[in-house]
Each structure stands twice: as structure tokens, then as C-alpha cells.
Amino acid sequence: RVVGPASLVAWFMQYSVMGLAFQFFDHALSKALGVKPVWYGEELMLPPPSKEEQTPSPSQSDPAYRVKSTLKTILAPVLAGSLESTVANRAEVQRYFGPAKFASIETKLAWSSPLSRLCAPAFLSNAMRNVIMCNTSFIITPITYKLYYPQEKKSKSSLFWYGMGMNFAGNAVAITQQALWGRALDYCAENGGRNIKYGEVIRNSLKKEGMSAFFTVPKWGSRILMNAPVQGSLPWFYNNVLPLGEGTVLGAARWVVCSMSKGNQTAFDSADSNPGARSYS
Q1: pTM of the entire structure?
Q2: 115, 221, 224, 256 - which has most CB atoms within 10 Å?
């Protein structure tokens, strides 16, 4: 038995976490840096900006603005993909080895850092795979669809199939990291458990099998068949389904925050009106 409780939680959460995390980081970084977020929801169905609209304003033509916009575009998928790996990688490693063998390897590694134990072995290659697919789903797909897809053919259906096609292309790169993840774990398991040296893993793999160690058509096909139904539909879900409940969720969140604020203020005012109820040290 190689599937533990953590695996079930990870399967349910990992794809939803990526979309939620990307939206949070994209908007938070955009607000912090004073730049525009990535096009989202109904914005994708609108015509691309005209030449006049594409002409940057004085603030947007400033080199500092462009640097900040580029930095945000790089950081948002990196942070979102890393968060997804934090949620899922430990469960995936447990599923790869099985609970008993994984526990034995962890004992041999003797990691004292709680963060290392949370992330688990081969976190870097797992995160790189997720960063690649996050870029594919939430950066490349919406931007190219908005700017270059024929306006008269834009629809929820065409976005669904366009996202599927872009997923095929993204996975051509992501499978190299998936293969590295598996080979890194095999390296980690040798002699009962040892720390991963990615340079050594890559050199040994290329020496034995060449590029086929990281990319073959069957690997690409199996990865697509495994992920396409869920991951390929992410751009469609993120831009067409998620916005439907967004207003309700945000409204409920604002109500909770306001209620808590009012409750705290009422308690504070009550304490002010009854000084004897306070205790002083």
C-alpha cells in the first residue's frame, strides 16, 4: 500500500491550490509594485488592446515600471508553484516509496529542520515542474489567447480547447522535471537514504541514457493522459467558473472581517465604559 492519507488530501488540493495561490500572489504583487495583474475572466473575451491603447502611459513606459511588471510576472508563478509543491510533494514522495520505506529514508537523512521535513526530498524538481505548468496555465495561455486568438472565435469552449493545447506544449517541458524528480528520488534512496545532488543525478542519467532519460514521446503522452483532464482545463475553470462564485465568497469574507472588527470594537468600548473591569499589572 503506497497511498496514505496525505496522498488523498494532496490529490484533492493541489490543482485548486495552484489557481488560488496564483491569483493571490498575482494581485498582491501587482498592488504592492503598482503594476497591472494578468488578464482574468471576462477580460479574455474582450478584443485585444488597440494600437492606441497599447501605447504605454508615461508611468508604464518608465523603465522602473517595466522591471517591476517583469518581476511580478516571474515571481507570481514561482510562488504559486512552490506553494503547490509544499502542499503536495511530501504526499507524492510517500506514494512513490510507500509509507514504510519513506519513513526509513527520512530516518537515515536525519533532517532536523521542520521545513525540510515538510517539503520532503526532491522538492526543487517538483517545484520546477509546477512553476512551468503554472506559467503555462496562468501566464502564457491567457496572454496569448487574449492577444492572438481570433476575436470572432473567442468563447468558453474555444478557451477550454486552447488551454488543453497549451497544456500539451507545457508538459513537453514539464516532463523533464518530472523525470528528474523520479531519478532524484532513486538517488536519494540508495544506501538507505542520502541527500540529493542534482548535478550528479543529471550527469549520471545523461551518461547512461542520453536525452531519453528526461524526454521521450511515451513519457510525454503518458503525462498528458494523466494530467490533461484536470490540468488542461485549469485556464477554462480559472477564467470561466471561478469568477461565478468570486463575488459571493469575497462578500462573505468582508462580512466576517467586518463582524470581527465590530465585535472587537464593542468589547473595547465596553471595557472603556467600565474601568473597574480592567486589571492592571
Answers
A1: 0.77
A2: 224
